[in-house]
From TrEMBL:
This is GTPase Obg. Its EC number is 3.6.5.-. Its cofactor is Mg(2+). It comes from the Bacteria. GTP binds at residues 165-172, 190-194, 212-215, 282-285, 311-313. PANTHER family: DEVELOPMENTALLY REGULATED GTP-BINDING PROTEIN-RELATED, MITOCHONDRIAL RIBOSOME-ASSOCIATED GTPASE 2. It is an enzyme of class 3 (hydrolase). GO terms for biological process: ribosome biogenesis. CDD domains: Obg. One of its GO terms (cellular component) is cytoplasm. It holds the Pfam family DUF1967. GO terms for molecular function: GTP binding; GTPase activity; magnesium ion binding.
Length: 423
């Protein structure tokens, strides 16, 4: 098992600005506000997909942005909503906040969805601000920014495919060819003391994890050699690739080896006999391999085993084996491992929208609502300015300033602007 990690930055779409428009129709001489609302920005949604097995695709692209909402239009027409961005992740992916390291969500079920970054709200058009006393408002709201977050995707990779076989049959070499893994390779027994894992890329969004599992010896089911450690890893795989030395160069009988390995597997856990098993007859570049291949096929093909003659040294037949493994995986239902460690799930808290404070004698107002309000205000327009002042009163901002001791003519700092306070 190893940890596959990707750090990505996400930004949801901005809401479209509301429109300022007026009726200019032939029989409507007085006109009237006619601006529509902006569309909401697109959200970023995570979706757990059992067809994706690694985080490989997220290593090539680190920033993802959803579509912005469209501006409002005249005739009170709404702007189009920004399209949501759906990011598919493997089942079992932990999503962590990059700043705190805390888990936001555990994507543990196929089809599970979670909105990780919400799109901004579309701004209201000037038609929404008309009242009996303000019949022709010349201002509209701007859309709000979409949520932005940097997350760490963390996946505990259990091998989809396990390479099994006696020591020195070429498992490590085959792993290094199929994947980007760089296992130790040497011409002596028991080189691999722990599973080496690598990711095999088939196509975009199509990859699987393969493990070169330590060479097995007789008596492993009783704990001999690497015993239970070996078999525990085998138990977690979905497909087994049984690598045989078809050359018989070490005086071994590959058919006997096949039966001995499977006997150990079944003695440890009878369910292992139900796992799909592909046979890779390796070292076909060596003398006597053709003769042994005939015997292997004669013995094992009638039992339903698919046999792929390969040479890890010359790479002959390796591609055929790779695609055979992938096709077998597609037809094998995964069994998800349950992890026992405790996790602190921390869902995102909504941002505080208004902050009123006094720092070093300065009165300061800030927050997402205030930013939206000030961006929507036309300070050259009396109606817009009045709306701004009334909004501050209705939200209790003026009352909070008074509690902090503000007096007439004191300066208030709002999102980079300076205002004089008058009650």
């Amino acid at each position: 098992m190893f940890i596959d990690v990707a750090k990505i930055k996400l930004k949801a779409g901005k809401g479209g600005d509301g429109a300022v428009a007026f009726r200019r129709e032939k029989y409507e001489p007085a006109g009237g506000p006619f601006g529509g609302d902006g569309g909401d920005g697109g959200s970023i949604i995570l979706q757990a997909d059992e067809g994706i097995r690694t985080l490989m695709d997220f290593r090539y692209k680190r920033f993802y942005k959803a579509e912005d909402g469209e501006r409002g239009k005249t005739k009170k027409q709404y702007g189009k909503k920004g399209q949501d961005l759906i990011l598919k992740v493997p089942v079992g992916t932990l999503v962590k906040d990059a700043d705190s390291g805390k888990v936001i969500i555990d994507m543990k079920e196929h089809g599970q969805v979670y909105t990780i970054a919400k799109g901004g709200k579309g701004g209201r058009g000037n038609a929404k601000f008309a009242t009996s006393t303000r019949q022709a408002p010349k201002f509209a709201e701007t859309g709000t920014e979409g949520e932005e977050i940097t997350v760490i995707l963390e996946l505990k990779l259990l091998a989809d495919v396990g390479l099994v076989g006696f020591p020195n049959v070429g498992k490590s070499t085959l792993l290094s060819i199929l994947s980007a893994a760089k296992p130790k390779i040497a011409n002596y027994h028991f080189t691999t003391l722990k599973p080496n894992l690598g990711v095999v890329q088939i196509d975009e969004g199509k990859s699987f994890v393969i493990a070169d599992i330590p060479g097995l010896i007789e008596g492993a089911h009783e704990g001999a050699g690497l015993g239970h450690d070996f078999l525990r890893h085998v138990e977690r795989t979905r497909v087994l690739v049984h690598v045989l030395d078809a050359s018989g160069m070490e005086g071994r009988n590959p058919i006997d080896d096949f039966y001995k390995i499977n006997e150990e597997l079944v003695k440890y856990n009878p369910k292992l006999s139900n796992k799909p098993q592909i046979i890779a007859a390796n070292k076909m570049d060596l003398p006597e391999a053709e003769e042994w291949l005939e015997k292997i096929e004669e013995e094992l093909k009638p039992m339903g085993y698919e046999i792929y003659p390969i040479s890890a040294a010359t790479m002959k037949g390796v591609d055929e084996l790779k695609f055979a493994i992938w096709n077998t995986l597609l037809n094998t239902k995964p069994e998800y491992e349950t992890f026992d460690e405790e996790m602190e799930i921390t869902l995102k808290e909504p941002e505080k929208t208004i902050v009123v404070k006094k720092e070093n004698g300065r009165y300061i107002i800030e927050g997402s609502y205030i930013e939206k309000l000030i961006n929507s205000t036309n300070f050259d327009n009396l109606d817009s300015l009045r709306y701004f002042q009334n909004a501050l009163k209705q939200k209790g901002v003026v009352e909070e300033l008074k509690k902090l001791g503000i007096e007439d003519n004191d300066t208030v700092f709002i999102c980079g602007y300076e205002f004089e306070f008058f009650d």
